[in-house]
């Protein structure tokens, strides 16, 4: 802005209120705003005219040359960015566009085959887990049966000892 802090602007406002008066202060601020708006417009127009003159005289080309001389890596990166920006505009009817379409179709087929094989693998693993769970359940049932038989045998042996 103008380099004035808020406290300095407040002092200027209070002095203007005292000097000009509260009745004429809005009119003065409106005219000051119009003046500053015109000044900005003139500065903008002057800047635009200077830029147009610089463009027509080739100053921008010289500035690019100096930039390339002082920063070769940056200018090389700018060249790469310019080259890459043109790659996104592929004509679908050109040879590159046809290859791109074929590659996309091949990519889609590969993704579909990978998804299919992953689903088959998961189904196999689920079946194996189910079989293992059934085997564990059968083993647990057999262990429970053996425990009952062992208890019965122990109870019969204790009864025979008690009778003897």
Give the key terms.
single chain; mainly alpha; 0% strand
Describe this entry's structure for a reader.
The protein is mainly alpha-helical and 164 residues long. The chain has two domains: 1-72, no CATH class; 99-164. It is 87% helix and 0% strand. It is built from five helices and no strands. It has helices at residues 6-20, 25-57, 59-70, 72-85, 95-163. Helix 3 (59-70) crosses helix 4 (72-85). The mean pLDDT is 83.
- The stretches of 5 or more residues where confidence is low (pLDDT under 50) are none
Q: What is the N-to-C order of secondary-structure elements (H for helix, E for strand)?
A: HHHHH
Instruction: Report the mean per-residue pLDDT as an integer.
Output: 83
Rg (CA only)? 45 Å
Number of helical stretches of at least 4 residues: 5
Question: Distance between the terminal alpha carbons, to the nearest Å?
Answer: 115 Å
Helix proportion: over 70%
Taken together, the total number of domains comes to: 2
> What is the oligomer described by this structure?
single chain
Percent of sequence in beta strands: under 5%
The major pleated sheet works out as: none
Overall geometric form = elongated
**Secondary-structure-derived class:** mainly alpha
Give the strand tally: 0
């Amino acid at each position: 802005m103008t380099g004035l802090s808020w406290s300095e602007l407040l002092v200027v406002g209070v002095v203007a209120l005292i000097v000009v008066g509260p009745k004429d202060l809005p009119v003065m601020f409106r005219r000051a705003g119009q003046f500053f708006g015109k000044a900005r417009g003139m500065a903008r127009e002057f800047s635009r005219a200077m830029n147009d003159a610089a463009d027509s005289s080739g100053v921008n080309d010289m500035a690019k040359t100096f930039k390339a001389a002082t920063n070769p890596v940056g200018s090389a990166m700018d060249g790469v960015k310019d080259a890459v920006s043109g790659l996104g505009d592929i004509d679908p009817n050109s040879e590159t566009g046809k290859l791109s379409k074929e590659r996309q179709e091949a990519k889609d087929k590969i993704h579909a085959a990978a998804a299919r094989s992953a689903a088959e693998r998961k189904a196999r693993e689920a079946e194996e887990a189910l079989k293992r769970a059934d085997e564990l359940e059968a083993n647990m049932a057999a262990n429970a049966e053996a425990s009952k038989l062992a208890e019965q045998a122990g109870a019969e042996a204790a009864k025979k000892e008690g009778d003897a």
